[in-house]
UniProtKB/TrEMBL annotation:
Record's keyword terms, sorted: Cell membrane, Disulfide bond, Glycoprotein, Immunity, Membrane, Signal, Transmembrane, Transmembrane helix
UniProt-annotated location(s): Cell membrane
The keyword Transmembrane helix belongs to this UniProt entry's keyword annotation: yes
Protein name: Ig-like domain-containing protein
UniProt GO BP: immune system process; response to bacterium
Regions crossing the membrane: 254-276
Origin species: Scleropages formosus (Asian bonytongue)
Example of a GO cellular component annotation carried by this entry: plasma membrane
Residue intervals of the Ig-like domain: 22-114, 136-229
């Protein structure tokens, strides 16, 4: 997927902004890519107890948000402006309100927000960025197996381009569970040494492979990793690679604390009993047993 490079700085500013995700309304997918002419579906999850109306907005980079439609679970959606229901369609599916765009065009590339309204107050989700793919494609290899803390894994991103074999700038983003939007974690800078021309005679296709090694993984490294390549005035995005970091068996810190407190109480009790027995001078059978415990 791609977006023109002269808008890239604005895009990254939006991508890295600290918008707070809420439990009232949320959009689970932060980034989507489609081929020109394909259909795309956006999901908006919301709390039926706290939301009465759902609104959808489209914001093209550098412009103000535009209202697409407002829907209520008991009425038909109302569409606004040039957003005809022939291409834009809102569906209600329980607590999942969906926006479908048919036969996508390049002008559909934008951020799509859903907002939940109740008692004249609106809560927004963090949005989903939609970008159309062109002749250049970015393919991210999946991680075959779940990894464990301390393991190492190499994420790969392959760019196939029919034109422009110049230097590329490569960026990696990670979208962790519970985070609002992907955050920039690494950049390769200008790279062209990892590209090779197609072996087919007369083929203009160039293939570039970029890798991101991750060593000594932690549970906090889990998430979806996106590769972004700046080339020939475009920013190309991959669909993301999901990295699942499975933790080994661990003890609950609460149980550990309770166990330590129990041991301390038992030791203190034995000490007190031994102290009382030694100072009273009455060596009963129970005192003798406790004294043996103290001596050992």
């Amino acid at each position: 997927m791609s977006v023109t490079f002269n808008r890239s700085s604005r895009f990254f500013a939006l991508l890295l902004s600290g918008i707070t995700q809420t439990d009232i309304v949320s959009q689970p997918v932060p980034l989507m890519t489609v081929q020109l002419g394909e259909n795309v579906l956006f999901s908006c999850l919301y709390s039926e107890q706290e939301v009465e109306y759902i609104s959808w907005f489209k914001q093209t980079v550098g412009e103000k948000p535009r209202l697409i439609a407002i829907s209520h679970k008991y009425t038909h959606p109302i569409y606004y402006g040039n957003f005809s229901h022939t291409r834009f369609k809102v569906l209600e599916n329980g607590s999942n309100n969906q926006l479908i765009i048919s036969n996508t065009e390049f002008s559909d590339s934008a951020i799509y927000y859903c907002g939940g309204m109740n008692n004249y107050a609106m809560t927004f989700a963090t949005g989903t960025f939609l970008i159309q793919s062109k002749s250049k494609t970015v393919v991210q290899q999946p991680v075959s197996d779940p990894v464990h803390p301390g393991d190492s894994v190499t994420l790969q991103c392959t760019v196939n381009s029919e034109t422009c074999a110049g230097d590329h700038s490569v960026y990696w983003f990670r979208h962790g569970s519970g985070e609002s939007l992907p955050g920039l974690i690494y950049t390769h800078g200008n790279r062209s040494d990892e590209c090779e021309k197609s072996p087919e005679a007369g083929s203009p296709t160039h293939s570039c492979v970029y890798s991101l090694p991750k060593r000594n993984l932690r549970r906090s490294d889990a998430g979806i990793y996106y590769c972004a390549v700046v080339t020939c005035g475009d920013i190309l995005f991959g669909d993301g690679t999901k990295c699942i970091c499975v933790a080994g068996p661990t003890l609950d810190p609460v149980l550990l604390g309770l166990g330590a407190a129990l041991v301390f109480c038992v030791v203190l009790l034995i000490f007190l009993v031994c102290y009382i027995c030694k100072n009273t001078g009455k060596m009963s059978f129970s005192c003798k047993i406790y004294l043996l415990l103290c001596l050992h």
